[in-house]
Amino acid sequence: MTEPDCPLCERVAKKGSLFIADLGVSRAYFNEDQFFPGWVFVVLRRHAVELYELGPDERSALIEDVNRVAVALNRVYKPLKMNYELLGNQVPHMHWHLIPRLPGDPDLRGPVWRVNHTARQLTAEEVHSRILAIRESLGQSR
């Protein structure tokens, strides 16, 4: 089920250059802003806003998808801590932000939302390389 004006419903329908992997009930995408290296989105394939809108099996499958991506990011980035964010205040479609928190992080104890920064865009080659590393860690080739 999709919502006509939902930007994530449109994104999930297309794979694009930031697509990482098809998971169980979701897809993983690389965040364009890599100020925090390894920032990834896990987006529910169908439109839903709240966890309680999912049945127990779908909710469990989504949490497993999030966990698989977190494990993959841990292998690739070796963070001190993984942050998990499920907000939906700006984009009301269920999506998780997974953010590896690394040494040298400007505010390791605070949420990334409070760090005023200029978005860091990687080159196409860097994006491709990092996506491939995450895919390999997930055990997927595409």
Oligomer: single chain
CATH topology name: HIT family, subunit A
Order of helices and strands: HEEEHEEH
Structural class: alpha+beta
User: CATH class, please?
Assistant: Alpha Beta
Number of strands: 5
Estimate what percentage of residues fall within beta strands: 15-25%
- The percentage helix is 25-40%
Please give the count of helices: 3
User: For the report, how would you describe the main beta sheet?
Assistant: 5 strands, antiparallel
Based on Cα principal axes, name the global outline.
globular
Mean pLDDT: 92
Q: Structurally, how many domains make up the residues?
A: 1
CATH architecture: 2-Layer Sandwich
* Cα gyration radius (Å): 15 Å
CATH superfamily descriptor: HIT-like
Written description of the protein model:
The protein is an alpha+beta fold. The protein has a single domain, classed as HIT family, subunit A (2-Layer Sandwich). The chain is built from 3 helices and 5 strands, in the order αβββαββα. Strands 1-2-3-5-4 form a 5-stranded antiparallel β-sheet, with helices on one face. A hairpin with a 3-residue loop joins strand 1 (19-22) and strand 2. Helix 2 crosses helix 3. The two termini are 24 Å apart.
Q: Can you lay out the helices and strands and say which pair or pack?
A:
Elements: H1 7-13, E1 19-22, E2 26-30, E3 40-44, H2 56-77, E4 81-85, E5 95-101, H3 124-138
Antiparallel strand pairs: 1-2, 2-3, 3-5, 4-5
Helix pairs in contact: 2-3
